[in-house]
Amino acid sequence: MSEKIMCSAIHYNDGFEYENEPVKTGFIILGRRHKDCNRTLNRVSFLQSRFLSTVIQGFMTDRNRFVDRNEAFTIAKNNNQIWHHIFDTGTDPEVGLTSEDIFMEDEYVTD
Fold it and tell me: Which of 51, 53, 55, 108 has a 20 to 30 A CA-CA distance from 44?
C-alpha cells in the first residue's frame, strides 16, 4: 500500500528532542488545514517570540512522517488525493501542496 497524506501539519523546530515525535528535533502541530495549525501555534504565545523562522508548513502521512509541501504534492498526486482543479491549473512549485488541494471546503466543518 502506498503512503498517503492524512492532514496538514507544521514542524516547529526549537532545536530540542521530544519523545515520540516523528521528527528528530522540534515537534509537529496537526490540523485539518494549515490555518488550524497556525491558530494552535499562535495560542502558544511563548513560542511566538522564539525560533519563529524554524516553522515549516507541510503534511503528515499515514506512515507518521512529516513531509514538506513539495514531497506532499508528489505523494498526493500519486494517490489521486488532489482534486481535479489542480491538474487543470497546475500548482506553484514554490508553494507545493496546499490543504485546499486535497480537502474540499464543504467538507470542512466549523464550530
Answer: 108
Q: How far apart are CA 64 and CA 50, in angstroms?
A: 26
Sign of CA dihedral 39, 43, 44, 48: positive
For residues 54 and 10, what is the distance between their CA atoms, to the nearest angstrom?
10
Can you give the residue range of the structural domain that contains 41? Answer: 5-106
111 domain-assigned:
no
Tell me how many domains the chain contains. Answer: 1
**pLDDT digit string, tens, across residues 34-43:** 999 988 887 7
Q: Say which amino acid occupies 84.
A: H
Residue 76 in any domain: the answer is yes
- Identify whether 81 is part of a domain: yes
pLDDT digits (tens, 9 = 90+) for 17-76: 999 999 999 899 999 889 999 888 877 756 555 555 578 899 999 999 999 999 999 999
For 32, the 3-state DSSP assignment is coil
